[in-house]
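Hello Y.,

Per our agreement to keep a running log of every chain we model this quarter, I'm adding this entry. I've kept the format consistent with earlier entries: sequence first, then predicted structure.
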Amino acid sequence: MSLYMPLWDALRTTIRNLGRKPITAMHPFEPRTRAPRYRQTFALLHEENGDEACIGCKKCEKVCPSEVIVVNAAKRESTVTGKKRGFADDFTLDLQACIVCELCVQVCPVDAIVMCRVPNEPGFVREDLFLTMKRLYANETLPHAPAIGSTMIASHAQGPAAAPAASPAPEPSA
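Predicted structure for the entry above:
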C-alpha cells in the first residue's frame, strides 16, 4: 500500500494543476521582455562629421579582463577633416570569451564603443561570435544604450556632499 501512495500523490497534483493557466512563456512564439539595462553585443560609432570615433588608444584592450579585444592603431590623415589623428586600423572582439563587464565602454575616452540592447542571432560557427571592425560598424544602426562610457564614471562618482550655503549673520542692533 505504501508503494502506491507517492504515485497517487503525484497523480493528484497533476490533475489539480491541469486546469491552471501556464505561468511560463512560450519563448520562441512570445518575445521575451528584457530589462532596461540588458546588453548583449557591441558597436563602434562614427562622429557627427562621419569620421570613425575610435582613436586607437587601446585603453579598451588594456582594461579587458578576458583579453578578447585586439586593436591595431595607426596615425593617418582624416578624410573628413584633413587633420592627422589616431585611428584603429583593425578592431576585433571575441564574444565567445567576453564576460560582458562593460569596462571597455566605460574606459573609452571618446565613447566610440557602446553596448547594444538587441540580442544576437544564435551562431552555429565560431566566426559568428567574432566581431570584426566591419561587423562592429554594422551594429551601429542597432538600438544601443546611450553612449555613457566615460561620462558614466563621472556620474557615478561619489564626491563629498556640498555644504549648505551659510546664511548671513544678523547685524547687532544699536
